[in-house]
Design brief:
Radius of gyration of chain B: 27 Å
Number of helices of chain B: 3
Strand order of the largest sheet of chain A: 1-4-5
Structural class of chain B: mainly alpha
Structural class of chain A: mainly alpha
Helix content of chain A: 40-55%
Largest sheet of chain A: 3 strands, mixed
Distance between the termini of chain B: 60 Å
Number of helices of chain A: 11
Largest interface: A-B, 31 and 26 residues
Oligomer: heterodimer
Helix content of chain B: over 70%
Number of domains of chain A: 1
Distance between the termini of chain A: 64 Å
Order of helices and strands of chain A: HHHHEEEHHHHEEHEEHH
Shape of chain B: elongated
């Protein structure tokens, strides 16, 4: 770490952090301490992340060609390094949303922004920002300890919304969608396939009624 | 930007639009599965609520009788398993 503090000093100085907070905490702590160390140990962090700003970070994100947590000797992925960098930069909301929907179609930049949003936005905002991407089926290369595999944007987003651990990181507990709906903070999610699903449902119902109406079934719906 | 195993990375192709119909169809399956999962979760929660409601409406004696039955069923099961030793 020595020699590098000019860059991440404010974020990583645990003697007394005084920068902006996210959910009442130093944003660095959204990443577990051991993983923080893995990240700041990498050459990628030291060389490629030094003195990045909101604009130059895009260049790095565009060059990314896989997502993932740690691999090999628990080496942190560039993806995690850039997530950590974002936590340090804390770009404005508009910028993050621009990353997410970037017109140029840089999918790894989208994935990076999605992960950052999951870590830092408020629950309702997370669902609102990320759910539209459940219709995005671009391929993502994902690196695991045993090699590379293909996943898809929608799968990645779904994991972010439903899982507790992703990319070697424990995600803070996001309230379930259903709960937010019950509190009337969120509207029910309408799948882009809603029409087709309804058609399937109707078919099934018709079939069922045909089978059971003679027996006077009390099947509801 | 990586220092090792670049060859392995190339083997997994992330190019989009190679077979658009296939890619769409696969997404559709994933989306339908998500909808099914979310619905199942709602039904599960609904069931639990109903069960709680039902128990609340029972009298104290009825509730106790039900619990006794449950415990006895549990005991019977345990004894069945105890045959090993």
């Amino acid at each position: 770490m020595s020699g590098h503090k000019a860059d991440a000093k404010a974020l990583l100085d645990d003697r007394g952090y005084s920068g902006p907070l996210i959910r009442g905490e130093n944003p660095a702590n959204l990443i577990e301490k051991p993983l923080q160390d893995r990240i700041t140990e990498t050459y990628y962090w030291k060389e490629q992340c030094f003195a990045l700003n909101e604009a130059s970070l895009c260049d790095r994100a565009v060059d990314m060609n896989f997502i993932g947590g740690t691999y090999g000797q628990q080496k942190a992925s560039p993806f995690l390094c850039l997530v950590f960098k974002l936590l340090q930069l804390q770009p404005e909301r508009e910028i993050v949303l621009y990353y997410l929907h970037n017109e140029e179609g840089f999918k790894y930049l989208t994935a990076l922004a999605a992960f950052y949003i999951r870590l830092t936005f408020e629950p309702v905002e997370i669902y609102k920002a990320l759910e539209p991407l459940l219709s995005d089926y671009r391929k993502l290369r994902r690196r695991r300890n045993d090699g590379f595999m293909i996943t898809h944007m929608d799968q990645f987003i779904d994991d972010l919304l439903t899982k507790d651990r992703m990319c070697g990181t424990t995600l803070w507990k996001l309230p379930k969608r259903q709960l937010l709906e019950d509190l009337e903070l969120l509207d029910e999610r309408v799948s882009p396939l809603a029409d087709e699903i309804e058609a399937i449902d109707n078919e099934n119902d018709d079939a069922r009624e045909g089978d059971e109406s003679r027996e006077g079934s009390d099947y509801e719906r | 930007w990586d220092d090792d195993e670049d060859g392995e990375l190339e083997q997994v192709d992330d190019t989009d639009g190679v077979d658009p119909e296939m890619e769409y169809a696969q997404w559709k399956i994933r989306e339908l599965e998500r909808v099914r999962r979310d619905r199942a979760a709602i039904e599960e929660a609904e069931k639990e609520r109903e069960e709680i409601e039902r128990r609340r409406n029972l009298s104290k004696e009825e509730r106790e009788a039900e619990d006794r039955q449950f415990i006895e069923a549990q005991k019977a099961e345990k004894e069945g398993k105890g045959q090993m030793s």
